């Protein structure tokens, strides 16, 4: 397995290089520059700024410079936040997204998974229909509706929890954003697990297990659970990367200083280095999560062989 | 009712009843808040700034308003703004000017940096030279244009050492100007003129503004700064006027406008930076005098390109478009009565009454008739209507205004004006290249003086995106530059502005207003045209509720 992991990690390098190249090209092709402002700059200042950020060099040299800095782990200075580097922005913002996203996905897995299994255990009954209807609601109502509703109820009316902000990662500030972020994932996971469990429970080997006299819980936990989780694991790979790199809606509504909002503001401000840094981070996380998914497959399904 | 439907109904009812089980008086935030008369034991203020700013806390580089609010708290210049927004003695206790108004001598008080080192006159010299030095690459490199040699230095024709600022001794700053500059004292309270502590900048480079390194001289110290997040300040015990500062802690939160209002109602914010104009009536009904709005030093103007058809050499057309706008209607229905109609670029300023064109006083029907007369004179008619594009940066407020403007032109003149919104960065480039015929040209003044608005129309001026050029106008501004008598100078500027209005060099629509939600237990603030309320004047009264 270590060889497999190493091979996958090495194969990630050209992928990341391709992402960096595409992002670089797209950003430089977009009209408007990072230092265009209402105050048109005199040529000397324009040149000084361009020289400071090496924008006065030919594009190919800028590209090579970026790659060489990248190889040293330096994502460059932010063009938007002029006294800050992209590394600093990610170092400050990513832990917040990891905390909120981690809690959200943990909640979604536990609650959504439990609801899905519960629904699958009695298909067609009230225990199935009620949570599935609610999960449809959870998937349909967008986060930008759920989040303000949670604030309205728990912060503005009941004053139980703060409406936002991030004060050293206290649980009180974490709860509402994590819940708002978790709800659609919880709903989707519940439906996914239910569908998968129902399919697995109809399999011949489950029938055999029942025929051997095993109780419903034993059948579920010992034989049905692992194959049930297969589609969930496939879904979790990209979902995890998306959740952990921050949701712009959640960050805006709760005023969280994560990195999600920089995907948008960075692009609007033509902050080349910031957008490239975040794109690469997102790409790296996708690759990493997919690798974890494949490792999980091998653990969940003995028929999967990593070497192949 | 089927079971699933019943479950959904139950869930909705539960959510509603949960939100409705708040205390009965919480329907009104005013009723829920009881304010005493004694000082609150905990002097900690949480105030909001607009999201997306705070890009740099380097006084030489920073350009955005959120950062300005923080810099006003952690630095202080030769002057500081008083509660009414007027420049008052800051680090300088007093000053005198030469008879020709071109040399100002400021005398500094004994004060210390936050690290205990004494503040010297040389710290101002260092900071100003750094601001204008092209190597600093400051957007505000030309903001000190009034200071001798500043432009030459900024454009690389002279060395920073030749800047017109000297420190003959540790407590005296001498400023030499190109021309009498009556608004100089206002400039002295702007961030780019604050002193800077050179050793820390030399030691840490760009990172000198981090909380671990920064050395300031203002009423507060920077304790925490999260990029895109909270900025926390604590009282600076070494500040020369620390005895008068009552707040112990100030937290700035960069938030979207709608989120600011939510937080205000949740009791987590005491001072918002803004609120949505559409919510004005509702907010006033709920919050009463906690809703604060006042005239602001900014205009919302349409730029017309004097170099491109159809406006080049077509004064009648420009006049027709300006006259055909119903500004009161726009302000009342599109901007909820918050703003003031504008007939001329300069907003009302203390001591300056901007000249309003005579046609502005005409009854609407007569004004429209006159507009149609000019429209026809310009060569347009119902059979041959004006067709032109209006460009503005993507923004909901802009869209509402410009769609109303286009509709007014259509109905009052028959003109067919198409509105195009584009991303700001894309459009600003086109604007600077003078490729847009009709464009959003709003401007926030740098200092409370008409010159900050009128300079935009000077021939060759860097931000003159409409390419307006009138030698008479330039001569009047040049004469105002040289005039040392304040009243005569303002008269010259008014004369220049009259010329601008006669030429219809732009189409003013309205003047901005500042708008805040301020808890009634926050005291010490006064609305002022620059909308700058230094935290050092604010304090909190004891209170209960939100």
Question: Could you please describe the fold and organization of this structure?
Answer:
- The complex is a heterodimer of chains A (308) and B (546).
- With 308 residues, chain A is mainly alpha-helical.
- Chain A has twelve helices and no strands.
- The mean pLDDT of chain A is 86.
- By secondary structure, chain B is α+β, with helices and mostly antiparallel strands.
- Chain B is 30% helix and 21% strand.
- Chain B has helices spanning 3-20, 65-74, 121-132, 150-154, 184-187, 198-204, 257-265, 280-287, 315-323, 327-334, 364-377, 396-413, 424-432, 451-454, 471-482, 486-503, and strands spanning 34-39, 44-50, 79-81, 87-89, 92-97, 103-108, 165-169, 172-176, 220-225, 231-235, 249-255, 291-304, 340-341, 387-393, 416-422, 438-440, 443-444, 506-517, 522-523, 539-544.
- In chain B, the strands form five sheets. In chain B, strands 12, 13, 14, 15, 16, 17 and 18 form a seven-stranded mixed sheet that branches. In chain B, strands 2-11-10-9 form a four-stranded mixed sheet.
- Chains A and B meet through helix 2, helix 4, helix 5, helix 6 and helix 10 of A and helix 1, strand 11, helix 7 and helix 13 of B.
């Amino acid at each position: 397995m270590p060889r497999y992991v190493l091979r996958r990690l090495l194969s990630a390098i050209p992928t990341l290089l391709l992402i960096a190249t595409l992002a670089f090209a797209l950003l430089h092709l977009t009209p408007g520059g990072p230092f265009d402002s209402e105050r048109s700059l005199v040529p000397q200042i324009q040149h000084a700024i361009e020289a400071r950020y090496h924008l006065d060099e030919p594009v190919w040299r800028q590209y090579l410079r970026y790659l060489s800095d990248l190889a040293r782990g330096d994502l460059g200075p932010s063009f938007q936040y002029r006294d800050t580097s992209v590394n600093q922005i990610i170092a400050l913002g990513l832990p917040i997204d990891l905390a909120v996203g981690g809690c959200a996905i943990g909640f979604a897995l536990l609650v959504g998974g439990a609801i899905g299994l519960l629904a699958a255990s009695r298909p067609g009954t009230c225990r199935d229909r009620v949570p599935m209807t609610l999960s449809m609601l959870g998937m349909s109502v967008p986060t930008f509706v759920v989040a303000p509703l949670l604030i309205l109820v728990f912060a503005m009316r009941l004053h139980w929890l703060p409406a936002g902000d991030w004060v050293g990662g206290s649980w009180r500030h974490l709860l509402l954003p994590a819940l708002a972020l978790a709800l659609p994932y919880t709903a989707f996971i519940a439906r996914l697990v239910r569908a998968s469990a129902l399919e697995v429970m109809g399999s011949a080997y489950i029938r055999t297990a029942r025929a051997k006299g095993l109780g419903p819980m034993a059948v579920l936990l010992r034989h049905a659970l692992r194959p049930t989780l297969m589609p969930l694991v496939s879904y979790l790979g990209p979902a995890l990367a998306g959740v952990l790199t921050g949701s712009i809606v959640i960050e805006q509504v709760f005023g969280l200083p994560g990195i999600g909002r920089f995907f948008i503001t960075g692009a609007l401000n033509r902050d080349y280095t910031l957008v490239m840094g975040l794109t690469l981070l997102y790409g790296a996380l996708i690759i990493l999560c997919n690798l974890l998914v494949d490792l999980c497959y091998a653990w969940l399904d003995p028929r999967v062989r990593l070497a192949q | 009712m089927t079971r699933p439907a019943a479950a959904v109904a139950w869930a909705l009812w539960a959510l509603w009843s949960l939100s409705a089980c708040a205390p009965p008086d919480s329907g009104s935030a005013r009723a829920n808040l009881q304010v005493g008369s004694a000082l609150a034991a905990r002097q900690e203020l949480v105030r909001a700034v607009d999201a997306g700013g705070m890009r740099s806390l380097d006084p030489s580089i920073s350009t955005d308003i959120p950062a300005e609010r923080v810099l006003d708290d952690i630095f202080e210049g030769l002057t500081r703004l008083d509660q009414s927004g007027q420049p008052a003695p800051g680090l300088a206790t007093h000053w005198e000017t030469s008879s020709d108004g071109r040399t100002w001598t400021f005398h500094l008080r004994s004060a210390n940096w936050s690290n205990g080192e004494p503040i010297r006159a040389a710290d101002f010299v260092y900071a100003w030279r750094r601001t204008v030095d092209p190597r600093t690459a400051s957007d505000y490199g030309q903001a000190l244009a009034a200071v001798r040699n500043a432009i030459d230095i900024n454009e690389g024709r002279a060395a920073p050492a030749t800047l017109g600022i000297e420190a003959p001794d540790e407590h005296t700053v001498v400023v030499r100007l190109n021309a009498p500059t009556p608004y100089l004292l206002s400039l002295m309270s702007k961030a780019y003129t604050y002193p800077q502590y050179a050793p820390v900048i030399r030691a840490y480079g760009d990172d000198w503004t981090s909380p671990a390194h920064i050395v300031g001289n203002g009423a507060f110290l920077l304790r925490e700064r999260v990029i895109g997040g909270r900025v926390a300040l604590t009282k600076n015990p070494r500040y020369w006027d620390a005895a008068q500062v009552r707040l112990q802690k100030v937290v700035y939160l960069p938030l979207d406008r709608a989120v600011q209002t939510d937080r205000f109602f949740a009791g987590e914010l005491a001072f918002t930076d803004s609120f949505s104009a559409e919510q004005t009536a509702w907010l006033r009904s709920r919050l009463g005098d906690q809703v604060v709005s006042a005239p602001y030093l900014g205009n919302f103007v349409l730029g017309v390109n004097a170099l491109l058809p159809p406006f080049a050499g077509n004064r009648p057309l420009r006049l027709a478009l300006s006259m055909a706008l119903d500004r009161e209607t726009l302000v009342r229905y599109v901007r909820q009565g918050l703003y003031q109609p504008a007939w001329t670029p300069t907003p009302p300023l203390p001591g300056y009454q901007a000249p309003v064109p005579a046609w502005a006083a005409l009854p609407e029907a007569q004004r429209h008739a006159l507009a149609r007369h000019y429209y026809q004179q310009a060569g347009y008619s119902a059979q041959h209507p004006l067709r032109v594009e209006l460009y503005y940066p993507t923004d909901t407020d802009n869209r509402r205004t410009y769609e109303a403007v286009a509709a007014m032109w259509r109905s009052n003149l028959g003109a067919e004006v198409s509105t195009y919104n584009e991303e700001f960065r894309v459009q600003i480039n086109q604007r600077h290249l003078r490729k847009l015929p009709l464009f959003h040209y709003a401007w926030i003044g740098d200092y409370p003086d008409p010159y900050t608005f009128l300079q935009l129309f000077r021939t060759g001026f860097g931000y003159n995106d409409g390419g307006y050029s009138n030698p008479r106008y330039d001569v009047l501004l040049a004469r105002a530059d040289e005039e040392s008598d304040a009243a005569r100078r303002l008269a010259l500027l008014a004369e220049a502005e009259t010329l601008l209005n006669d030429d219809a060099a732009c189409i003013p629509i309205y003047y901005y207003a500042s708008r805040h939600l301020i808890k009634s237990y926050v005291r010490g603030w006064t609305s002022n045209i620059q909308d700058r309320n230094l935290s050092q004047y604010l304090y909190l009264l004891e209170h209960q509720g939100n």
